[in-house]
Amino acid sequence: MPVPAEVMERLRLLYLQSAGRATRLYHELGKVLGRLRQANIPVIALKGAHLAELVYRNTALRPMNDVDVLVHKDDLIRVEAALLGMGYAPTECHRQVAEDNYDFVYGLPNRELFVEVHWNFLPSNHRSRIDIDGQWERSRQAVIAGAEVSVLCPEDMLLYFCLHASTKHLFGMGLKPFYDIAETIRHYGNEIDWKRLQLRSKRSGAAKCVYLTFRLARELSGASVPDELMQAIEPGDFDERFLLLAKERIFAYGHWNADGLSLSRNIAELWGSKPLPHKGTLFLRRIFPALGEMARIYPAPADSIRIYFYYPARIKDLLLRHGRQVWRLLRWNEGMTGLAERENDMTPLKDWLMSP
User: Fold this and answer.
1) Is the pLDDT of residue 137 over 90?
2) In the listed set 152, 179, 194, which residue is the last one of a domain according to the structure?
């Protein structure tokens, strides 16, 4: 059956829009990577910046909203200086490395491009542990946006994709991550050492994330993940309902908030069926975060008495950011309570992914 003309025209316009945006982004990306190279700062290009040009081989086919790079933690100050010199501004008042963060974000004033500067793939207090030094040792040289840069080896790249889709976004990014995995496997083919990927998945404690993400990639995008790998990393406590929950999350992308509503995960968790003590602990932790976390948000050092005066500002900021959500929930707004219920339906999946 031929594709209707109006559908083809719509696809053509979307492709041209993607191509135009990609041209602008890669022009800016080339400048960023070039500046960091001039400063002798090693960089690994992650995700879309790597995939669009080297794997998809057509930047219009792999849209990206921001640029993700990995740098050494010791280079963060120099990276920030280079970005500030290019007119980028940080999205947080203070940038402090802590157990619960692993990247800083910088953006241009016109919001044309955001650069996410990672020094790790997961917070250091996360259950899974990624060998970042090994990522650097196994990285390869490439040219992206006209600049020399490093990229992850295929096995590390696939592991990162699995962690990013499952742990960070709980499969709330639609189908794009699974096509990234399928295209990466197609591009590198026999070069991928599946045995090494199996060992790294288990050593890092990420085997559950890898198994479920690969199951989804095989079913949704036809990714050629070997049966031997899937059998070797299948968790003993896997339940098919986790696959169904993940699919529900994937195919709800772009539809749950079709009416313009949004709901933070913390608010959804407070609204859910967790025991009252758990809700109380979560509430206090978000209202009164630790001093180190406060120092990353407000312009005062963690060891200064001034930081305590920002707790009232914290309450005000939370009310401005989430007050409308809470008010709608308290009034049993149908759209908002539906969002909360759908978020809490994902709790079994989230708990399983985070379990040993």
Assistant:
1) yes
2) 152
